[in-house]
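Action item from last meeting closed. Structure (403 res):
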């Protein structure tokens, strides 16, 4: 156990098709507002050690590569030699300069099979030589207009490196950066609606939204869920396939929706059915559904730790991305759902016990640890719950996608 608890977050890296192709692992000391450490090498070594030994790369990043921030000392000390080169992208911090010791270390890292990324890169006299030893260049888009960002990418488009746009917060920015040559994207754009299209949720979505609301009601019973599911032939078929999938680990073959629901349990069926319905409403990338599941499970775990209502916490997390799924304002969406005042207050204003848990969940997702800490939940529990939520969500989505 380290002297100070550590917390993880992961941020997805998307290709032009908006499918995930890697995750940046983020680490913060819970007492710090940002990634400031007395010994950056020790901090990086700590996150790597815990990722490899305590959690495992598969649990944190699945089959994708882990992008890990590294500073000058980490490189010069050759600390990367303990890492599996095929699983890691070394993300060189913007503070690193192209001094001889650094260049020699990067040569060795590349010879050992590591991919190299330059984080928040700016071309300067003492950084230019780093470009030749890199595979990826990341440019920060925060606070820039779409045209400014596009111009920056155009300026590096002939470098021969794969360009990544980071801190991207809108689809407009994704498109602008792509037109300038960016091939990879990182930021919160997936969790925001692309545009608010009007005052009302479209009528063709209204019935399905009402079904989602009823499925996630605290009073709903197995019998009522079975009735709801059986009204939709496609949903019934997919739920039975899900229940019978190898990922569930059951040898029995289910032929009736009620039996499958009884075996799976209401919480799992609510989540699966909600994702299947949302998938029919939206063409959003699969990662948005994964984010919804992570938030739902994490909120639920935090609620249990604080003796709150686990189901209400689950719903708050699950519904926190409805606006992004539907490209409608959250107010418009919530107005059409039969939700109680506590969940509504959490979703719209982050008020109440549910709002605190949802706010902490989103802060943890973004590695904003000073906002993530909750009364009644210690740091080790917070980190353990996050890892558990990742594993649960990945397993759930894998089964849904194959159903």
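Sequence:
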């Amino acid at each position: 156990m380290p002297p100070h608890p550590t917390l993880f977050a992961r941020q997805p890296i998307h290709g032009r098709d908006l499918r995930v192709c890697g995750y940046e692992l983020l680490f913060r000391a819970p007492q710090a507002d940002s990634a400031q450490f007395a010994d950056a090498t020790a901090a990086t070594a700590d996150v790597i050690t815990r990722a490899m030994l305590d959690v495992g790369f598969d649990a944190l990043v699945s089959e994708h590569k882990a992008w890990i921030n590294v500073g000058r000392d980490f490189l010069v000390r050759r600390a990367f030699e303990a890492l599996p080169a095929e699983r890691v992208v070394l993300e060189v911090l913007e503070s690193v300069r192209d001094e001889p010791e650094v260049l020699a270390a990067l040569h060795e890292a590349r010879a050992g099979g590591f991919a190299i990324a330059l984080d928040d890169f700016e071309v300067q006299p003492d950084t230019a030589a780093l470009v030749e030893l890199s595979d990826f260049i990341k440019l920060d888009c925060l606070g820039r207009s779409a045209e400014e960002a596009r111009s920056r990418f155009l300026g590096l488009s002939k470098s021969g490196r794969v360009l990544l746009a980071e801190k991207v917060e809108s689809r407009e920015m994704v498109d602008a950066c792509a037109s300038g040559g960016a091939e990879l994207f990182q930021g919160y754009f997936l969790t925001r609606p692309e545009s608010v299209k009007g005052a009302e949720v479209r009528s063709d979505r209204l019935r399905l939204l009402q079904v989602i609301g009823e499925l996630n009601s605290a009073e709903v019973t197995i019998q009522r869920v079975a009735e709801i599911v059986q009204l939709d032939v496609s949903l019934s078929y997919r739920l039975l396939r899900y229940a019978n999938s190898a990922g569930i680990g059951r040898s029995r073959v289910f032929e009736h929706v009620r039996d499958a629901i009884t075996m799976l349990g209401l919480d799992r069926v609510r989540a699966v059915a909600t994702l299947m319905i949302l998938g029919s409403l939206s063409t959003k990338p699969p990662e948005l559904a994964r984010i919804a599941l992570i938030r739902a499970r994490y909120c639920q775990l935090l609620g249990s730790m604080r003796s709150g209502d686990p189901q209400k916490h689950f719903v708050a997390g699950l519904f926190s991305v409805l606006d992004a799924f539907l490209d409608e304002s959250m107010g418009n969406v919530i107005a059409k759902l039969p939700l109680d005042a506590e969940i509504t207050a959490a979703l719209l204003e982050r008020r109440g016990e549910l709002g605190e848990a949802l706010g902490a969940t989103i802060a943890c997702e973004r590695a904003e640890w000073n906002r993530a800490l909750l009364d009644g939940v210690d740091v080790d529990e917070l980190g353990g719950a996050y890892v558990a939520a990742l594993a649960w969500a990945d397993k759930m989505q894998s089964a849904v996608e194959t159903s």
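Note appended to the action item: Residues 70 and 92 are 5 Å apart (CA to CA).
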